Amino acid sequence: xxFVTKFFSDLGQWINExxxxxxxxxxxxxxxxxxxxxxxxxxVCIKIADKTIxxxxxxxxxxxxxxxxxxxxxIGSLIHNLIAYTINLICIMLILGQVxxxxxxxxxxxxxxxxxxxxxxxxxxxxxxxxxxxxFEDQFGVGDVIQIDSFKGTVEEIGIRxxxxxxxxxxxxxxxxxxxxxxxNFSTYNSLAVVDxxxxxxxxxxxxxxxxxxxxxxxxxxxxxxxxxxEVLGVQMVGTTDLKIRIIAECKPTRQFNVxxxxxxxxxxxxxxxxxxxx
Length: 279
Description:
The protein is α+β, with helices and mostly antiparallel strands. It folds into 3 domains: 119 residues, Orthogonal Bundle (Helix Hairpins), CATH 1.10.287.1260; 49 residues, SH3 type barrels; 83 residues, Alpha-Beta Plaits, CATH 3.30.70.100. The protein contains 7 helices and 8 strands. The strands form 2 sheets. Strands 4-3-2-1-5 form a 5-stranded antiparallel beta sheet. A 3-stranded antiparallel beta sheet has the order 6-8-7. The longest helix has 40 residues. It starts with a helix and ends in a 6-residue tail after the last helix. It comes from Paenibacillus germinis. InterPro entries: LSM_dom_sf, MS_channel_1st, MscS_beta-dom_sf, MscS_channel_2nd, MscS_channel_C_sf, MscS_channel_TM-2, YbiO_bact. Pfam families: MS_channel_1st, MS_channel_2nd. It is found in: Cell membrane.
């Protein structure tokens, strides 16, 4: 008990001798003012950055080019976090400098630590940077059918570090963004269904072609996947006993396989009705 009493007594005496001096009080006051000013300026800078980001996103939405709103928000969030972390770090360093802490060794230590982390996490940094540019450049989106190397499927998730695609047989492939060298996007433009009809060489080509033209017109009415009337291009190949007549149909992205199957079924039915043999 006596020790505690002596401690507070010594503390009070030290305060009376040092803190109560006018120059000390003025110095503490200005340090507090500077700290508050640094804090306020940092918050104002973050607010200005947020306003600028919001303006950029608004301008991007009004662009004639159509961008995915989710991606735009993701980019805005990434830029906001980067700016906020940088400004807050500078703010902390300035405040530490105001209270008399020598931040030189701290910066040097942080630099060495950052260098060590950079060497140890090169693949992670590469994944993050690549993921940022995938989102920023709008290379592909959730729901797109893409192929990365030998993996083909529908994009389920685009992350900053990894991309998930699901194949048509159900497997989910998780690919680090840094490993993505080349991407084929099958969902950007309309696809093309190609059907070759093989018929005997002795048949009347003009009659077979007319039947096929009428059939493909009817097929277009059966599905919304075909965006324009299919075309019967004509004889694609002539063999010793048969020939091939090629049909093409422009359809919605990634729907060419469904359209091809539908064309095959309807053509077969119609040629059976007209008693034209299909090889």
